[in-house]
Amino acid sequence: MSAHAAMPHHIAIVMDGNGRWATKRFLPRVAGHKQGVESLRRCVKACVARGVGVLTVFAFSSENWNRPADEVSGLMELMVLALGREVPRLCEDGVRLHFIGERGGLSDKIAAGIAQAEAATAHNTRLVFNVCFNYGGRWDIAQAAARLAQQGQPINELSLDRAMALAHVPDPDLFIRTGGEQRLSNFLLWQSAYSELFFSDKMWPEFDEAALDEAIAAFQARERRFGKTSAQVASPDTRKLRTA
Q1: CA distance readout (Å), 28 to 54, 86, 162
Q2: Domain for residue 5, yes or no?
Q3: Comparison of pLDDT for 125 and 231, the residue scoring more
Q4: 132 lies in which domain range?
């Protein structure tokens, strides 16, 4: 990795492949999700060490409720355990936790755990860690539009952007999906309009620091034009305008 290449400020990840990783090893799918928590812990620490400002992960989509009941209940139990266990570690690493998604369908126990975790990490400043739980990109756009309509506000690109669930952070620079699939799966549809996409064949439990560095290196090798030409991007005057 070049020392002069820009580090992505905001990395978003679809953590795919937990169940398939477990199935290949003749383990219950929830064992893959437990191993996935270990991978996520490594990834958070790696992002802090590399100076990434924001990490956003897709932990549980609004469509995941359709999975087998035992897998869903196992994921919920894992969520409660992880909340209690990880918060002190996140505070040690200076990580501020935000949960993004519809909280209405969550149990009182999980909702209380989420609120406590957010409050306990609110003072941390090294990394903003967004966990998208019971989240969907279409839900996000719809809730933003509904909120603006309720307030009698005009609905346009700027107002929608400010009403999105991730309005507290810039849009993702790098969007990573593991597990060999190549689709967005209703994740950050609005925010990923200009994200660089990176698809990894590794299952999420196998995704380590080296795999993260590979994705970052691929990002750093790309030219981000945002609708401009290469010549405009290379122009000193354009660079001044963009960074002003």
Answers
A1: 32, 23, 41
A2: no
A3: 125
A4: 10-243
Those residues with Cβ within 8 angstroms of residue 123's Cβ, 6 or more apart along the chain or in another chain: 96
Residue 2 in any domain: the answer is no
Identify residue 21 by its one-letter amino acid code.
Answer: W
pLDDT at 226: 65
Q: Give me the pLDDT at residue 2, please.
A: 44
Q: What is the pLDDT of residue 223?
A: 83
Q: Could you confirm whether 64 is annotated as catalytic?
A: yes
Q: For 157-191, write each residue's pLDDT tens digit.
A: 999 999 999 999 999 999 999 999 999 999 999 99
Q: Among 47-61, 182-196, 226-240, whose mean pLDDT is lowest?
A: 226-240
Residue 18 lies in a domain: yes
Which CATH number characterizes residue 117's domain? Answer: 3.40.1180.10
Catalytic residue among 64, 93, 161, 208: 64
CA-based radius of gyration for the chain:
19
Q: How far apart are the C-alpha atoms of 100 and 58, rounded to whole Å?
A: 9
Q: Which residue in 89, 98, 93, 95 sits closest to 118, CA to CA?
A: 98
| pLDDT tens for each residue of 31-56 | 888 899 899 999 999 999 999 999 99
Distance from first CA to last CA of the chain, Å, rounded? 27
Is position 93 annotated as part of the catalytic site?
no
Contact 50, 122 (CB under 8 A): no
| SS3 at position 42 | helix
C-alpha atoms less than 13 angstroms from C-alpha of 206 in its C-beta half-sphere: 16
The number of domains in the chain is: 1
Torsion, Cα of 74, 75, 79, 81 (10° steps): 30
